[in-house]
Design brief:
Elements (H helix, E strand, L loop, with lengths): L5 H28 L7 H14 L21 H38 L6 H14 L1 H4 L5 H19 L8 H9 L6 H15 L7 H17 L7 H10 L18 H21 L5 H16 L4 H11 L17 H22 L13 H9 L4 E5 L1 H11 L3 E3 L11 H11 L5 H7 L4 E5 L4 H7 L3 E5 L3 E5 L9 E2 L14
Parallel strand pairs: 1-2, 1-3, 4-6
Antiparallel strand pairs: 3-5, 4-5
């Protein structure tokens, strides 16, 4: 077979440059379109709906009968945006919003890489590594998805500041003024920014005037964090609640205590870090190394931070990875940019239609649908002692008839005393039955395996429903209810919002 001519080779290369980015984008979008419902999604949407309908941000909890703290809803703006997306497009609207956020973050990253004139195969491979490493932040739709976007904006600005374009610092306080109202991940961004200022301001080439601008920017960020409905209460709330003991939540666990896939996710951005350090360690700015070191170590201790670590590695260290550039830089005209944007949105739509029309809620932490049907059929109303993973699910489906005792907001509206009482009851600690009686619930909805369930039945609580996952009990002085026992529950996937 005769060898290919230079002209044919150029045509193949040109085709690869066009097809490979589209294929990579399609793979990433389809992968991230698969979305699961975590235990808080019901609450986020309901709270956002009520804020929109009332025009006010709750200062007092109305959904629980045991909450004893003023409600500092540090995610109120994210919940409003989430509800608006859901109101327009249902579950598909939420997935589409998540993928659009990913696209904007990806566009910022690709713009940061553009001066490198990277070979398409290298570029798309690194983009895929970044997407996979960010998966812990994106597997579900939660307010942390907005932290993914705003951390990308912050890194985008800091890279330009490193290149001498100081005007991008003006974007940073604006970023934090929004961030403080959507998710507590702004604390990660604020810590990264502080380390950046502390190291970058003392680099040899920086003038005194530039150092002053950096310090002023950090001060303005402090002011920007007060742009929230609660003022300084927001800061004191986060100060008191950040880093609580959450041994029961997997995403707050160290990578080493989780399945091997967690370590694999951490190793993806680490491979970029190691490569950059091996070949260009002396060229990497100290400000970049400081942020990477912070997130690399922190993400080992908390798997949720791996997504931030992946983004930081991509923005800050990829420019120092030895990659063969393309021979010729191709100027991107406005028309091509517009076409690329159109294609990207088309791929987002295709990914949503193929994999994101429903949000999967087939998780073992949820009660079976028959339990929800039991509550609805019997028109239960009153106070219900709940397993915390059931709380916001119950609020969505049964409030205001049902008020729960515990839900995923835990540190937000429940004091340490209330949380301790609940967990002591769950594990049937000494005095658990009396402690539950003192809360005055009408019903109890717990996992069927909860140690306290047999003790409650022995104390006279009546069985209303028992299934393979959960059990509903009621006080013996309430009107008698029909008892339902379900041996097995349908195994087909359940989609949000259920039941």
């Amino acid at each position: 077979m005769p060898p290919s001519s230079p002209h044919e080779t150029r045509e193949v290369d040109a085709t690869a440059r066009k097809v490979l980015p589209l294929a990579t984008l399609l793979i990433i979008m389809c992968f991230l379109a698969v979305t699961g419902a975590d235990a808080d999604l019901w609450g986020h949407l309901l709270f956002g709906r009520d804020i929109v309908s009332s025009g006010t941000i709750h200062q007092r909890d109305v959904y629980s009968f045991t909450s004893d703290l003023p409600w500092v809803n540090h995610e109120w703006l994210a919940e409003v945006i989430m509800w608006m997306a859901y109101a327009v497009g249902g579950s598909a609207g939420l997935v589409a919003l998540k993928l659009l956020i990913v696209c904007v973050s990806g566009a910022l990253l690709l713009e940061t890489w553009r001066p490198l004139r990277m070979n398409p195969m290298w570029r798309d491979g690194l983009l895929l590594i970044t997407a996979l490493g960010s998966w812990p932040l994106l597997i579900t739709f939660r307010p942390q998805v907005f932290s993914f976007l705003l951390f990308s904006v912050l890194l985008f600005a800091l890279v330009r500041v490193q290149a001498g374009r100081r005007r991008w610092l003006a974007l940073v306080p604006v970023c934090f003024a929004i961030w403080v109202n959507v998710h507590g991940g702004w604390l990660v961004g604020a810590t990264a920014l502080t380390m950046f200022v502390a190291t970058f301001s003392f680099e040899a080439h920086l003038r005194s005037r530039d150092r002053a601008i950096l310090i002023a920017t950090l001060a303005l960020v402090g002011v920007a964090t007060l742009c929230n409905p609660y003022g300084t209460r927001m800061l004191t709330f986060l100060w008191d609640t950040v880093g609580p003991n959450r041994a029961d939540i997997s995403e707050w666990q160290p990578v080493t205590r989780l399945p091997i896939v967690a370590l694999a996710l951490w190793l993806l951005p680490t491979s970029i870090v190691v490569t950059a350090l091996w070949y260009r360690s002396r060229s990497i700015p100290l400000s970049s190394l400081a942020i990477i070191a912070l997130l690399g170590v922190s993400s080992l201790r908390v798997i949720r931070l791996v997504g931030f670590y992946s983004l930081a590695s991509a923005f800050l260290l990829v420019p120092f990875v030895p990659i063969s550039p393309v021979v010729q830089a191709h100027r991107v005209e406005s028309t091509k940019r517009l076409l690329s944007t159109f294609v990207a949105f088309t791929i987002v739509g295709a990914a949503v239609m193929a994999f994101g029309r429903q949000i999967n809620m087939n998780a073992e932490y949820l009660p079976e649908p028959e339990a929800s049907a039991y509550v609805s059929t019997n028109r239960l109303a009153g106070n219900m002692f709940t397993w915390f993973d059931y709380g916001e699910y119950a609020i969505w489906h049964f409030w205001p008839a049902i008020h729960v005792s515990m839900d995923g907001r835990r540190e937000t509206v429940y004091s340490q005393r209330i949380r301790d009482v609940h967990f002591a009851i769950y594990r049937n600690a000494p005095g658990a039955v009396d402690a539950l009686t003192n809360l005055h619930p009408d019903y109890v909805w717990l996992p069927v395996s909860a140690p306290v369930v047999p003790a409650l039945e022995a104390a006279g609580w009546q069985l209303g429903f028992r299934g393979p996952r959960s059990v509903i009990l009621y006080r013996n002085d309430l009107p008698r209810l029909h008892t339902t026992v379900v041996d097995s529950s349908p195994r087909e996937p359940r989609s949000f919002p259920g039941p």
